[in-house]
Specification:
Radius of gyration: 32 Å
Mean pLDDT: 85
Distance between the termini: 133 Å
Shape: elongated
Strand content: 25-35%
Oligomer: single chain
Largest sheet: 6 strands, antiparallel, barrel
């Protein structure tokens, strides 16, 4: 007699088991999604904060290096250049857009946007070496002994710049300083041959009005062949300011507040930039400049000061309170900064590139995260006396 086969359970999960497993997987995935979302958000916000900090640091480094050159006069070590009262050698315009009538603040700037102006002689980042090519120029003493007048050859110098790109930076209107005697001459014309430059020198056009610069006379002494020479852009004025620039071709109407650097030859009437504008930092929501004559106990500048005259008045008050009423920033000496070792403080505030809810105090709306960093210094050429 045949036996019935035992009943076996079918393979696989039941519908109830599948539903329970699916529920647990969904709960687990929801938790993992929140963890992943939080990790991505933390990574993004941290990266944006670090990027903002780097922009701050790079901008302050550039401003620091530039300010250390403010008031550096290379073409004439004994006579300080003259400035006009409408365009001084060093001054600050406190937030001119917000202080204008009517006020037109720069979009995106929340901490103020000052303008910083200063002058200097800018040495090019290389040197030339005087060569013996051609007829050696005669010095003034040699011409007197010979009883002859100077010719073009006596104002012509050939210099080896070591590199073609360096030679291309030499231009008419620059000054040439021979380091063997620290004598400055003014370049009126030049020719190039590879890395070699031959210059013809003459009188600086501004010497009659400023009292400083090359006179166009023959060299006082013979210059040593092979000695180094420095090429200088004389009487340069630099401006740091915040401007709204359109940087995204895909969104031409979207403006980004940027800290920019402009430069050009000093003009008595007003600042006249001629070189290409440099973008120092993007997404800048504040640029403030302060000065102090009491070792940083109090600062003059920023909000509450309408113009440069008010800042100078505050500086005079500091000097008078510290027992130095004879050293004032006003008066006829517009090179006052060469005599007063004032502290200069620069605050740069940058913001993140995007707005996020994490940056808003209560998280109800999106906002930028701002970060302010500062540099405090006495510029290298401030507080020096003129011989």
């Amino acid at each position: 007699m045949a036996r019935p086969l035992p009943k076996t359970r079918p393979n696989g999960f039941s519908l109830v088991e599948m539903m329970v497993a699916l529920l647990f997987v969904m709960i687990l995935m929801a938790g993992m999604t929140q963890v992943f979302k939080g990790t991505i958000s933390t990574f993004t916000t941290t990266s944006e904060k670090l990027s903002s900090s780097r922009r701050n640091r790079m901008a302050l480094d550039l401003v620091y290096e530039d300010l250390n050159n403010a008031g550096m006069y290379l073409t004439d070590l004994t006579i300080a250049p003259s400035y006009s009262s409408t365009n001084e050698g060093f001054y600050i315009r406190p937030d001119p857009m917000a202080n204008a009538t009517p006020a037109t603040p720069i979009p995106g700037v929340t901490q103020g946007a000052d303008e910083l102006y200063f002058c200097m002689d800018e040495a090019l980042p290389f040197e030339g070496a005087l060569t013996t090519a051609g007829t050696p120029p005669k010095s003034a003493a040699e011409l007197v002994n010979l009883g002859t007048a100077a010719t073009t050859a006596d104002f012509t110098f050939t210099l080896e710049c070591k590199d073609v790109p360096y030679a291309k930076q030499v231009a008419v209107g620059q000054s040439l300083i021979f380091k063997d005697s620290w004598e400055a001459v003014y370049i009126t014309s030049l020719t190039r041959s590879g890395s070699t430059v031959t210059v013809v020198t003459g009188a600086d056009p501004s010497v009659a009005t400023t009292g400083s610069g090359a006179s166009g006379l023959p060299s006082k002494t013979p210059h040593i062949s092979g000695s180094a020479a420095v090429f200088v852009r004389g009487r340069q004025q630099v401006r740091y300011s915040v401007q709204a620039l359109n940087l995204d071709p895909a969104s031409p109407s979207a403006a980004t507040p940027c800290l920019v650097r402009d430069q050009g030859p000093y003009v008595a009437g007003a600042f006249n930039p001629t070189l290409d504008q440099q973008i120092v930092a993007e997404n800048v929501s504040g640029f403030r400049v302060y000065i102090s004559a009491d070792s940083g106990k109090t600062w003059v500048g920023g909000a509450g000061y309408a113009d440069w005259a008010a800042i100078k008045k505050g500086l005079d008050d500091q000097l008078a309170a510290s027992g130095r009423p004879d050293f004032t920033s006003t008066g006829t000496d517009l090179n006052w900064f060469r005599n007063i070792p004032v502290l200069v403080r620069v605050d740069v505030t940058t913001r993140t590139a995007t707005q996020r809810g994490e940056y808003h105090p209560d998280g109800t709306q999106k906002a930028y995260k701002e970060q302010t960093q500062s540099v405090v210094m006495v510029p290298r050429h401030f507080g020096l006396s003129m011989n």
